[in-house]
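Researcher: Structure for this, please.
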Amino acid sequence: MTSPADPNAKAIKTLDKDLKRIGLLEQATAFTARPLVGPGIALVFMALAGLGAATIMGAGTGTWVVVMAAVIGAYMALNIGANDVANNMGPAVGANAVTLGGALLIAAICETAGALLAGGDVVSTVSRGIVAPESVAEPQIFVWAMMAALLAGALWIHLATAMGAPVSTTHSIVGGVMGAGIAAAGFAAVNWGVMGKIAASWVISPILGGAIAALFLAVINNRIIYREDKLAAARTWVPVLIGIMGGVFATYMAMKGLKALVHLSLGQSVLVGVAVAVPLTVLMRPVIARQSRGLENRVKSLKSLFSIPLVLSAALLSFAHGANDVANAVGPLAAIVHAVADGASGDRVQIPYWVMITGALGLSVGLMLFGPKLINIVGSEITRLNAMRAWCVALSAAVVVIIASWLGLPVSSTHIAIGGIFGVGFYREWYHEKILKENRDLSALPVEERTRRKVVRRSHLMTILAAWLVTVPATALLSAGLFWAATVLAGFR
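Model: Predicted structure, token format:
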């Protein structure tokens, strides 16, 4: 130990101060660099996608165009993973049925499996008939139109994610294709009948999702929660509800998730669902009876009975989402690859496997890097969810997709899930005020405090509605501008 008289004491003290400053500088550097890790990994993934495309395509004509498209396609897939996947896992996380880390892992596995095992093997080069192929049949013009559409959709989803607004990735790419198609060939190139159906789905999807989720919650309230003997009611009704869930998801998977492997009609899919629902109900009766032993006769005890079914439903939704919505990222990319390789756009395009892998990995990487923000907003910031309410939201999403397929309506899984969350929240407000006659008079409080104490947070409602309304026009305008700039730079104007 040094004494005050020690000549080295001052030097040691100075050294300690310098080392402390260096330690603080290192901490500050680490803190500052932490937000850059995610974007850095994303950039590496995009670069690898471009490098892989260059390796596969070789040194042929148009390789650089495919490389550019692969980078943009990877960027689109990252954004879909960051924004869209939250709709499947958000309710389960908000209900504390699974941790955020567990949800990310489950969703990443199921999204990748859905995209690779059951992803569509063909995709319309004009994104589901929005633009007539013959209107932009010249290969080079078509390539730049698809490139602009893909980049516009990716940029818009990126912006929406930064704002905390879950938007439809399908509508984003549809708006992008529409804008580029109009810029390339005029308004006559657009199939306005299909666009009318999509516009109608903006209203139908969330309302139907909210109504069905509220209906399921009303059944649970009436038959289980507000019964004197809650556990006895749960033993009777929870197996039935789980059986319904199994049947609905079996129908959903038969129609949507596995359509690339086997094609079944609506009637056949419903029969598959019934074949799953009935035995599942019977099998779950002794399981629920065993799980309910020793539980207290209160609502909190019932939540544990719904946790595992909720996680399974979220996993199945993620699988089906990967199987279907991966085309939003890789569809235009596959069309560009086809146009460069074959010199024509064509009406239908085979998706190369490397393109599908790019999309599948992009969904998972985007989810792991940037998904937690939207998962937290969807799961806990719109309204308070427990396992039963979140289960209603997940089930309503599957039911609405089945109904929409039957009616031939193009719906958005994002709109359905968010509509279900709002439906559950608004139903709770109505039920507590009108049925239970609880005193929720907040008129004496300031406007800001009254809004904060509502079951559904209105600020999120307005942000999400605004983002939904402007998605197609915003991506269309952005895509048209990008297409014009690209064609000018490429010397077509």
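Researcher: Any notable elements?
Model: The beta strands are 122-124, 348-350. The radius of gyration is 26 Å.
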